[in-house]
Amino acid sequence: MVDxxxxxxxxDGDRAMLRLxxxxxxxxxxxxxxxxxxxxxxxxxxxxxxxxxxxxxxxxDQPLTDAADRVxxxxxxxxxxxxxxxxxxxxxTYAFFAxxxxxxxxxxxxTSDGEAAVSCGHASLTAMxxxxxxxxxxxxxxxxxxxxxxxxxxxxxxxxxxSVTAGRERLRAALSRxxxxxx
Length: 183
Hints:
Distance between the termini: 34 Å
Shape: globular
Helix content: over 70%
CATH superfamily: YP_001051499.1 domain like
Number of domains: 1
Structural class: mainly alpha
Oligomer: single chain
């Protein structure tokens, strides 16, 4: 689902640009984890880790020296542990995609692996496609595609602001889906 031109740039392009791309994707997905897991008993450290990790990804000059360790820690999150029931709840689904995107962001950041960056973008696009399917008139997928393309050309200044705003809008939409399913 990642645009062909974006995917080609991630596979063959500048490593700092790749790190910017995964930082921006992670920023846009962050509210879906943080907002849906904050206040849950036993998840405080996970939320803190997620917040710190997304912040650290924005330092795109150099790869994270502990990216592999962060992947291992993230893989212990319940969202990435297999279960017989699978993922069925709305909040669980979007939190899963947020954790998955961050996992791929760590791999891409630490190894400069363009395929991992594409996978990070794909996780974001998949989640946004799901939101679009479940909310009449939503255009989250289109917006994610636009922001992914922009992250390949933007120097990072306005991209952070746009990513924060997009992430908040996604959380509001996901919360509206969660609220409807609770009643």
